[in-house]
Each structure stands twice: as structure tokens, then as C-alpha cells.
């Protein structure tokens, strides 16, 4: 896959995002106004469907379960409102960040540029196909679950699957620029590996040879080239950190709302799956498959956001390791390496957080799983308590009072 094919994949995904109203139009004048009206129409459509679903919700269940079950609808409303707000208002800031990333990429040689765009194109195509196929399966299962009744399945997909597709595309808008930043750090790592290999003296020279130290000094820092390379990397890494923080600050509220919405939805779906297996009704197997798909989707969203940022941290750790393995033959090179190491360690010590609340690291998965299990156990206890009370009521109804 060459750079033109990569650009084609990105344009296809961008057009899909624009169609679903979660990405800026990229144009000015009448085209931007038409796109803004389309985004507002989608927002009104999703909000109207979600409000209607909350009002018409009449499933018999305890109040706490009803509240948790219906929390997904206001969550979807707020998340989609956030995405469309940024698509309509913050067009220039999104384009500025993207331009800075591509400017950093163009600073490398042609082979490295082609390699980075090739990997990015493969990643874009993979995520685009995965999201399209997954949500297509969800739509198909929803249609089968409603016995191919057109209007019923249309309303259900409008309330559930349309917001789900828009939110998944919103996540991709964050993940793909971060992937480009990771590729830039990966290219730095390759440059350091090449520098480390160049620092090896000629094989026929040994440490006892008089020519060893002079040859070693030339290889390690010929004319200050290594020092200049390290300083350039440090400057680029600083820009990458700044762009990453800009993306996190832009999507921070979206991440926080998404974590809460997905966690509550996973709790409810797990409890409903438990209830199904406790008293299975095999005629509702299609609904059970739908619940498993929903569990996969919400769980994947939480993991996906955390793992994307984890890749950035891994590349920084690799850079630190390679910098520590470099040979130092001049005080100037030592100062440059120490400054770079200090910058990397400072960025690693300060965790990336969504609105200063949720740490964007896979180490946070333990906390999410703990909260999830606490909620599910709480719901199971409520369900068991309700069944016990119902059993007592039924027994007392058979008493004969004299």
C-alpha cells in the first residue's frame, strides 16, 4: 500500500465521518452551511428518538435497573452533541493539528515518509473495515430480532445503532492522529538504533589498539552529528507531546462521558445476560446475541481508548532504553542525551488524564473491572432480593385467615 492508497483510505473514512456528522466539512461558504444543517438534523433526530424511547420505556423491572438501563440514552445524546458541536464549531483547530502532524512527517526522508504513510493507511483501512462490519452485523441482528418488521427495526436502529456508529467514528477521529504520532516516535526509535549501530568500531580494531579511541570518537560523534540528531529528536518529541495533549484536551470530555456511558451499559448488559442464563428462554437467542455484541462494543471502546495512549508510552520507554545504551565520548553529547532523557521521563511521570479524572492508561483497566463487578453484584443482589420477597408474598397469599 503506497502513500496515494493511504490517502485514499483516509479520504474515504473522512467522507464517512462527514456523512454521519462527526467530522468538519473541510470547506467554507455554502458547503459548510449545508454540512452544519445536516449535522444539526442528525443531532435532532437522535435526540428525538432517545427522548421518545425514554418516555415509552415500559419494561417491568426495579427502579434502579430502570434508571441504569435508560442512562444509555442521555449518555448517547450528550456524546453525539459534543461530537457535532466540534464538527460544526472547531473546524480550524482540527485542521491545524493535522497540518502540524503532517509537517513533522514531511521532515523525514522519502523512504521513512512512505513507510509511515503505508502503515497509517493499513491501520486506517483495518479500523474502517472493522467498524463497518461490526455495526453492519449489529444492524442485521436488530432486524432479525424484530422479525424483519421494517418500521420497528428502523426505529430501533435509529435509537441504538445510529448513535453507536457515530460514537465509534468519533473515537477513530482521535485514534488515527495519535497513531501518526506513534509512528513518528517509532521512526525516532529506528534512528537511534541506526546511531547505536554506527557507534560500533571496525571489527579489526580492539581496545588495546592505539587507533581504537580515535576511531571510536569519530564514529560516535563525527563533527557533532550525533549531538545535533539528538537535539532534533528532542525538539520533535516536545512537539509530539504538545500535539498529543491538544488532542486529549479536545476529546477529554468525550472520553469521560464515554467511559461512564460504556461502563453503565456493560453493567446492565452483563446483568441481563446473567438473568437470561438463570432462567433461559431460548426463543430469545437473537436478543442474547445482540446483548453480546453490545457488551463487545462498549468493552472495546474502553480498552481501545486506553490502549491507543499506551502505545505512545511504550515508544517513549523504548527511546529511554536506547538513549541509555548509546556510547558517550563528549560532554556535549552527554548533555544532549541527559536533556532528552529528562524530557522523556518527565512526560512518563505525568500521566495522561481525561479531564484530570480518568488516567488514560491500560493500568486503569483494573479499576474499571472492579467498578463493573461491584455494580453487577449489586444488581444481582437486588434481583435475588426481589425474588425472595415475591416468594414470601406468594406464600402468604395462600394462607387462610379465620
TrEMBL record:
Q: Where are the transmembrane segments?
A: 33-53, 73-93, 125-144, 164-185, 251-276, 288-306, 363-384
UniProt keyword Chaperone, yes or no: no
Keyword terms: Cell membrane, Membrane, Receptor, Transducer, Transmembrane, Transmembrane helix
Family recorded in the similarity comment:
Belongs to the insect chemoreceptor superfamily. Gustatory receptor (GR) family.
Main localisation: membrane
Q: How is the protein disposed in the membrane?
A: Multi-pass membrane protein
Subcellular location(s): the record lists: Cell membrane
Q: What is this protein called?
A: Gustatory receptor
Q: What's the domain of life for this entry? A: Eukaryota
Annotated organism of origin: Drosophila rhopaloa (Fruit fly)
Functionally, this protein is described as follows: Gustatory receptor which mediates acceptance or avoidance behavior, depending on its substrates.
Amino acid at each position: 500500500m503506497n502513500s496515494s492508497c493511504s490517502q485514499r483510505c483516509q479520504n474515504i473514512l473522512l467522507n464517512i465521518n462527514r456523512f454521519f456528522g462527526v467530522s468538519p466539512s473541510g470547506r467554507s461558504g455554502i458547503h459548510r452551511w449545508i454540512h452544519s444543517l445536516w449535522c444539526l438534523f442528525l443531532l435532532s433526530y437522535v435526540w428525538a428518538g432517545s427522548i421518545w424511547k425514554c418516555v415509552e420505556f415500559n419494561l417491568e423491572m426495579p427502579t434502579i435497573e430502570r434508571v441504569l438501563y435508560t442512562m444509555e440514552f442521555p449518555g448517547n445524546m450528550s456524546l453525539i452533541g459534543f461530537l457535532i458541536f466540534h464538527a460544526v464549531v472547531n473546524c480550524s483547530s482540527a485542521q491545524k493539528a493535522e497540518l502540524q502532524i503532517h509537517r513533522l512527517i514531511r521532515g523525514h526522508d522519502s523512504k521513512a515518509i512512505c513507510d509511515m504513510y503505508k502503515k497509517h493507511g493499513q491501520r486506517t483501512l483495518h479500523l474502517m473495515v472493522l467498524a463497518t462490519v461490526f455495526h453492519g452485523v449489529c444492524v442485521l441482528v436488530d432486524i432479525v430480532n424484530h422479525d424483519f418488521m421494517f418500521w420497528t427495526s428502523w426505529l430501533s436502529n435509529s435509537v441504538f445503532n445510529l448513535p453507536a456508529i457515530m460514537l465509534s467514528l468519533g473515537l477513530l477521529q482521535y485514534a488515527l492522529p495519535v497513531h501518526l504520532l506513534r509512528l513518528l516516535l517509532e521512526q525516532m526509535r529506528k534512528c537511534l538504533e541506526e546511531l547505536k549501530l554506527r557507534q560500533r568500531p571496525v571489527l579489526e580494531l580492539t581496545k588495546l589498539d592505539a587507533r581504537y579511541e580515535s576511531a571510536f570518537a569519530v564514529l560516535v560523534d563525527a563533527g557533532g552529528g550525533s549531538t545535533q540528531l539528538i537535539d532534533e529528536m528532542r525538539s520533535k518529541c516536545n512537539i509530539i507531546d504538545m500535539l498529543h495533549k491538544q488532542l486529549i484536551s479536545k476529546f477529554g470530555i468525550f472520553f469521560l462521558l464515554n467511559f461512564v456511558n460504556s461502563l453503565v451499559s456493560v453493567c446492565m448488559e452483563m446483568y441481563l445476560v446473567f438473568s437470561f442464563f438463570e432462567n433461559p428462554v431460548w426463543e430469545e437467542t437473537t436478543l442474547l446475541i445482540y446483548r453480546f455484541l453490545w457488551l463487545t462494543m462498549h468493552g472495546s471502546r474502553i480498552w481501545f481508548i486506553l490502549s491507543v495512549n499506551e502505545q505512545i508510552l511504550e515508544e517513549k520507554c523504548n527511546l529511554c532504553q536506547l538513549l541509555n545504551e548509546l556510547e558517550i565520548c563528549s560532554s556535549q553529547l552527554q548533555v544532549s542525551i541527559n536533556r532528552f532523557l529528562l524530557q522523556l521521563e518527565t512526560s512518563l511521570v505525568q500521566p495522561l488524564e481525561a479531564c484530570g479524572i480518568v488516567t488514560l492508561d491500560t493500568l486503569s483497566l483494573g479499576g474499571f473491572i472492579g467498578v463493573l463487578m461491584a455494580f453487577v453484584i449489586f444488581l444481582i443482589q437486588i434481583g435475588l432480593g426481589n425474588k425472595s420477597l415475591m416468594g414470601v408474598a406468594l406464600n402468604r397469599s395462600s394462607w387462610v385467615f379465620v
